[in-house]
Amino acid sequence: MTVTESAPGAGPRMDAAAGARAAHEGILRRQSARESAARTYARALPIVPVRARGLTIEGADGRRYLDCLSGAGTLALGHNHPVVLEAIRKVLDSGAPLHALDLATPVKDAFVTELFRTLPPGLAGHARVQFCGPAGTDAVEAAFTLVRAATGRDGIVAFAGAYHGMTAGALAASGHAADVRVARLPYPQDYRCPFGVGGEHGAELAARWAESVLDDPKSGVPLPAGLILEPVQGEGGVIPAPDGWMRRLRRITADRSVPLIADEIQTGVGRTGAFWAVEHSAVTPDVMVLSKAIGGSLPLAVVVYHEDLDVWGPGAHAGTFRGNQLAMAAGTATLAHVRENGLAERAASLGARMLSRLRALEGAYECVGEVRGRGLMIGVELVEEECAKGREGELERGAGREGACDEGRAEGRPRPAAPHLAAAVQRECLKRGLIVELGGRHASVVRLLPPLTISDEQATAVLDRLADAIDAAARDQPG
């Protein structure tokens, strides 16, 4: 039916809908024409958000979505939570400066007080805080500067699959070439264990490897200024660190006076079911790098560290945008709301239920390799359904495809990652009004990062849509 043929009263509504779609498409066309080729989320998620509340986003075309990206984990309380909006309005109405460099302000004082209230007990009473530039990568760079100054050493040890940001040192720690000297160690996991065994044995081997590298004078890795890790690798594919391995690393680094740096940029503020993910293993790091959720949806990044490391001089790490008063106010409100309302505990219980239901997909679909996560940080790794679809390089030369496939299954080897299938699932999710992220070493992990405020009913809707999207994507694969 065209607009001219519409029933009485329907014409204006159809005109409005058509206008909304045209505006939506026009904005996307202009973005494609004017923005950088480096843009990422916009390519996979061609939406134009105009309104948002909690878990829900409404696009310019009138479509509504359940947002399980949450600003890459930034929105602990979801979009436009009332306590965050109230905190921002209070600062705006007060006449307080919005930009204050690193000067002391009542807003900053309140933020630091609330932040210290949440810290692991072993650190809270001995902590110092450095405000950095507005992004998490700035906090990582500041942490590297801090430990270099404190130890007099240069190198950094990081882990395969890590993601610590986009500046030079952070990129080096994430596995990319840069001027900062970074050694990378294997990060333990079950599904794709670097030692082929998984479980406690795999974690023990990873710990021994770290110990050997640090102690062996011929390893090529001098004693480093610091060791940085994510308690749950996020961009690396939602891989929780084994608690025993975390405790071993704490002992290994402490015995050698190597500061342990915990990157809690994505895992912090209740995301994993504890306020800080290191609390799962009862580990107290020397340094914590924090961003994302601590700003309550606005840019803010800090380094929190033990006072014994506070030997750097004035200006050792600076930056113009360290005094964002709106972000500090929003952050204070977010930290307090999560703490006072037990949202970390809520993330633990709801996340466990969501994982339990998603794990049923492992048996139902051959393409679901593993479901894993902690709290409301969940990943579903997608793999090739048949060996014939796998990479040629993973098959033994001279062996038949089916024979190699059977041998791999018998030995329990994981099937090749399926990034094309993960991308198809993401597209199918978007069709069903669900926004999800992809990650992992092969971009084959569908990631869920819903706000901590998600309701049981909303969680069910998310899982229903995801399961339906996996089913549709799996059926559409060439057989």
UniProtKB/TrEMBL annotation:
Record keywords: Signal included?
no
Q: Look up the EC number in the record and give it.
A: 2.6.1.76
Q: Which cofactor does it need?
A: pyridoxal 5'-phosphate
Pfam families, per database record? Aminotran_3 (PF00202)
Region (Disordered) spans which residues?
A: 394-418
Please name the GO terms that the record assigns under molecular function.
Answer: diaminobutyrate-2-oxoglutarate transaminase activity; pyridoxal phosphate binding
Q: In which pathway does it act?
A: Amine and polyamine biosynthesis; ectoine biosynthesis; L-ectoine from L-aspartate 4-semialdehyde: step 1/3
Question: Which top EC class is named for this enzyme in its record?
Answer: transferase
- Which segments show compositional bias classed as Basic and acidic residues? 394-414
Q: Sorted alphabetically, which keywords does the UniProt record give?
A: Aminotransferase, Pyridoxal phosphate, Transferase
Read off the Gene3D superfamilies from this record. Answer: Aspartate Aminotransferase, domain 1, Type I PLP-dependent aspartate aminotransferase-like (Major domain)
Q: Which family does it belong to?
A: Belongs to the class-III pyridoxal-phosphate-dependent aminotransferase family.
Query: What is the name attached to this protein's record?
Result: Diaminobutyrate--2-oxoglutarate transaminase
> What is the organism of origin for this protein?
Streptomyces naganishii JCM 4654
